[in-house]
User: Fold this.
Amino acid sequence: MYCAYSEDFFSDRARRSIQIRPARAEDAAMIIEAINQVAAEKRYLTMEHFEATVEQEQAYIANLAYNGDLFLVALHENKIIGTLTALRAKGTYRSHVAEFGLSLLAQYRDSGIGSKLITILLRWCKAAGIEKLNLEVFHDNSRAIALYQKMGFRTEGIRKRQIKIDNRYIDLIQMTLFITEGN
Ligand SMILES: CC(C)(COP(=O)(O)OP(=O)(O)OC[C@H]1O[C@@H](n2cnc3c(N)ncnc32)[C@H](O)[C@@H]1OP(=O)(O)O)[C@@H](O)C(=O)NCCC(=O)NCCS
Assistant:
């Protein structure tokens, strides 16, 4: 239902040909590997490592359309280099809200791929009837915060000392974008 986002190729700032498309069940192992690489940096993600097994992830991807969620992958030379997931909140009274997260492998950052993924996400939000888009970001992730602000997100709250990594406390900034015709 939400697959108008397929096979979208573009050239990033380093002139690499990047493909963005919905995740497929067979991507599961590569997705887990990519997310685990970013998690291992211990600077950006709230998870220490990916929780699900390859089989669980395959089943989740197979049910995506049914759940009403979006899962995009970015590929370079057929290798997954980034992911974006947007999960619709459960229950009728919250079904206009979604929460998203994204990450790219280190060598693919600052090349415009994150901006492109969010642009596609906003297209999906409009088609899927999402009116409010939320995210959480570490207070010291200045690149991600700059990107979200550029895309129109504003701070809605701050969860102080919500994360503790190796005895370092991190505040979680909650950011929100209200989806309108203009964005
Ligand atoms: C956050 C992330 C998804 C952004 O994607 P990206 O492709 O690197 O972002 P883009 O290149 O599209 O845009 C980044 C913008 O921030 C700017 N920027 C980069 N570093 C910055 C900094 N330290 N301070 C302020 N702005 C910064 C860039 O100039 C760019 O702005 P521009 O498009 O106006 O030039 C990516 O860097 C990433 O995966 N980081 C590690 C994981 C992560 O942080 N995930 C998000 C968790 S909430």
Observations:
- The beta strands are 8-11, 17-22, 70-76, 79-88, 97-104, 132-138, 154-165, 168-178.
- Residues 8-178 form a domain with the Aminopeptidase fold (CATH 3.40.630.30).
